[in-house]
Amino acid sequence: MRMLQHSYIDGRFVQTLGVETMDIVNPSTEAIIGRLRLAGQDDVRLAIEAANKAQHAFSRSSKQERIAMLRRLEEAVRKHVPAIREATIDEYGAPPQRATWASEYAAACFGHAAETLAAYPLTRQMGAASVTMESVGVSALITPWNSVAGSICSKLAYAIAAGCAVVIKPSELGAIQAQVVAEAVHAADLPPGIVNIVIGRGDPVGTTLSTHPGVAKISFTGSTQTGKAIARAAVNSMKRVSLALTGKSPSIILDDADFPHAVPLAIQAGLQNSGQACVAGTRILVPASRLDEVIALTQQAIAGIKVGNPRDPQTTIGPMISAAQYERVQRYIRIGNDEGATLIAGGEGRPEGIERGYFVRPTVFAGVSNDMTIAQEEIFGPVLSIITYRDDEEAIEIANDSPYGLQAYVFSTNSERAHAVASRLLVGGVKINSLQHEPRAPFGGYKASGLGREGGVFGLESFLEAKAVVGE
Ligand code: NAD
């Protein structure tokens, strides 16, 4: 049992002042594995105060000092990779491969940010102006439960690179993972107040961060609905806001793709992170003339997937994070059936032989039209839709017919054709015959999938303000 009752404020673990507590549940077993005392308004105010106290000196730190801090953070988080991995399995139910990737990614973020900062000109001459990129100031980092350590560390790395003191508000559903990250940050021995971590609910912790005049910038990852609420609240004090939001990504399988390779890869794109991924390719667009072949390959791919105990090295799909998320996914499967889509794999209920845990059957519908609810709304579980198209033009039209525009996948044996399709998709990123994540590239969404970009130079600039000085 982990008892979490401390916030990390001003370089120390201090007793959380909030009075509400909640159980921490292992989603694979439904066993209670810990108890969290949730931070409240007083905790977050103290954290904002500590960050503001640290900000003045930190804004004036040199590039070399920040790079040294990033290297210390990288080393400290790397030492905690096994603990992050364990927490990601126990608290989130991530399958082994995912937990390993996610924990190593958390450490690697600091190295990427250090390299980016080293190569970035903080002062440039532009015509008659000397332009300096300055720290935007105290930043609130608000993160979701589906990628706890990764979201915290990727935001934190670029905030530190830019010289911003931070208040981090992780999801209350990722408290153990956030606690391990906090321990790693503490071990990096940064000056007090530069990093503060308060784990509490969206309201009051997130809402206080979005409205408090002591916060200059909000970097948020989560749902579009919450992102809109934050942006509305933040505009009164004119906070800078970056939003990484909901997705409903298309995977376009072109008719010249290598189908036996492309279909399983598209299924993998849809089911990554147990389907709880903003970038999941949940709409699989296939040529109408090849539908039977796609269905057979899909059923074969799904039959080879192991759902269950995330401690089993063969498992590739773990549980949903909570009972509420399980119910949400079940509801969408019912909606798919009610709307007349054809179930070709999975369906309602737990996978056969699993009695406990929030496990969902990997589910695929064919006969889906893009205006159905299951094709328009983010389900955030292992539920995919196969949609047919007549030609490339129609495929592009369907892909773009979504309120979201986070990512897309294109499968083809013709690189030129795949790139031509990619150039017409209204999304922040396209992966061609690949699921590879490039952390140095900008990451973010068009339309309701976000505002701004994270990662690399774009991630760094999201925490900077430009100042132009003209004259002698
Ligand atoms: P969420 O929006 O419910 O919560 C995200 C965070 O915001 C949590 O820490 C939550 O406590 C906090 N929050 C809630 N209400 C708030 C408010 N009014 N003010 C301030 N903060 C508030 O999202 P979630 O359920 O944790 O995560 C799933 C969603 O996140 C999905 O929609 C997914 O697509 C999205 N997501 C996007 C990306 C991306 O990079 N685009 C990455 C991961 C997840």
Overview of this structure, please?
The protein is an alpha/beta fold. It folds into two domains: 2-245 and 449-470, Aldehyde Dehydrogenase, Chain A, domain 1 (3-Layer(aba) Sandwich), CATH 3.40.605.10; 250-438, Aldehyde Dehydrogenase, Chain A, domain 2, CATH 3.40.309.10. The chain is 40% helix and 22% strand. It has helices at 41-59, 63-79, 81-92, 96-119, 148-162, 175-187, 202-211, 224-235, 259-271, 291-303, 323-338, 373-376, 392-400, 415-422, 456-461; strands at residues 2-4, 6-9, 12-15, 21-25, 32-37, 123-126, 129-135, 139-142, 166-169, 195-197, 217-221, 240-244, 249-253, 281-287, 342-345, 363-366, 383-389, 404-405, 407-411, 429-432, 446-447, 450-451, 464-470. The strands form six sheets. Strands 15-16-17-14-13-19-20 form a seven-stranded mixed β-sheet, with helices on both faces. Strands 10-9-8-11-12-22 form a six-stranded mixed β-sheet, sandwiched between helices. Helix 8 (224-235) links the parallel strand 11 and strand 12. Helix 2 (63-79) packs across helix 6 and helix 3 crosses helix 4. The model has no long low-confidence stretch (mean pLDDT 98). The protein binds nicotinamide-adenine-dinucleotide. Nicotinamide-adenine-dinucleotide (NAD) is lined by residues 142-147, 169, 171, 201-203, 206-207, 210, 221-223, 226, 229-230, 244-247, 278, 378, 380, 406, 445, 450.
